Amino acid sequence: MRSWAGRPDSSLLAPFLAASCLLLVAGSHQEIHEATGSRIHHQTNQHTHEVHCSRERSRAAWKAIDEYLMPFVEKEKYELPSKCRLHAENDMFREQEEHKIHFDVNEWRCGFCKKSFRAEKYIDQHFSNRHNNLLDNSQGRCLADLCGALHCDLTMEFKKPKSKCNAAAAARNCHLCESLADNCFPVNQGHSASRLHEFFLRQFCDAHTCNGDSKPFPKGGRKQTNRFYLALCILTLLLLPLFYLIVFLHQREMKKGVQVFKRIPKTVHKKKPS
Ligand SMILES: [Zn+2]
């Protein structure tokens, strides 16, 4: 089987890594079920319009998916199954986020009612207050719940200082991460799915250990350099005529200077005899 980015040995290692992850996670299984159970119970007791899902963390999770997973999924021309929790349709905030128009640093506009806001936090509040009827807050649509697996802390703008690695939490995240790989890229669904399954384990799941051997996103992400190069090209095009203008003016001044120097000796020469 061909593996991602020319690493043939990684496919051989996969079963061992998966097994190690399972061993780690065995102890924390109980905790996951308890946590999930309490969440459902909590939700059913609440008013239907109250949303217990962090918009900010969901955004960070989406950013991780969009930047470090989707370029590879697109390259394989693979379609995520609708039951996959990474699918855009399973993010309750996706529709609102896509109706967020960012005009300028300090100008955000609501795509539903065209109201303007000075900062993202105000438009977020507006969405919560005015357009919350658009949220489908059904179970399994909170992307923030996947943050543990997706390394959201790395994609959030204001990172918290790194706390000490918690082995139980790492095992929980590893298990969640593997279940995402299994649901989104079932290995029996063809070559693309099995390649992406392998890729997902390397890109997101391997780093859920406390030994610090592997870093998240080792395969890289969406190319961010395009914008930078575009800006650099525009700047060069703007500065080039300015540079030639300065050179031209400088040379003209130099020529004038030489002409003046040529005249000076004559006047000096004339003055001397008198
Ligand atoms: Zn609005």
Give the gist of this structure:
InterPro entries: Znf_C2H2_type (IPR013087). The chain is mainly α and 274 residues long. Helices cover 58% and strands 4% of the residues.
List descriptors:
binds zinc ion, extended, 58% helix, 3 strands, mainly alpha, 274 residues, 11 helices, 2 domains, transmembrane helix, 3-stranded antiparallel sheet, signal, single chain, 4% strand
Description:
- It is a single chain.
- Helix 9 packs antiparallel against helix 10.
- The chain is built from 11 helices and 3 strands.
- 58% of the residues lie in helices and 4% in strands.
- The chain has helices spanning 8-26, 29-45, 55-68, 70-75, 94-98, 120-130, 147-150, 152-155, 167-184, 191-205, 225-271, and strands at 100-104, 107-110, 116-117.
- With 274 residues, the protein is mainly α.
- The chain has a 3-stranded antiparallel beta sheet.
- The structure holds zinc ion.
- The site of zinc ion (ZN) has 7 residues, from helix 6.
Helical run tally: 11
Number of domains: 2
Structure class = mainly alpha
Order of helices and strands: HHHHHEEEHHHHHH
Looking at the structure, what is the overall shape?
extended
- Strand order, largest beta sheet: 1-2-3
Average pLDDT confidence is: 80
Q: What integer value in Å does the Rg equal?
A: 30 Å
Which distinct ligands sit in these coordinates? zinc ion
The strand count comes to: 3
- Uncertain segments of ≥5 residues (pLDDT<50)? 1-15, 22-48
Cα distance spanning the termini: 102 Å
Percent strand equals under 5%
Classify the helix fraction into a percent range.
55-70%
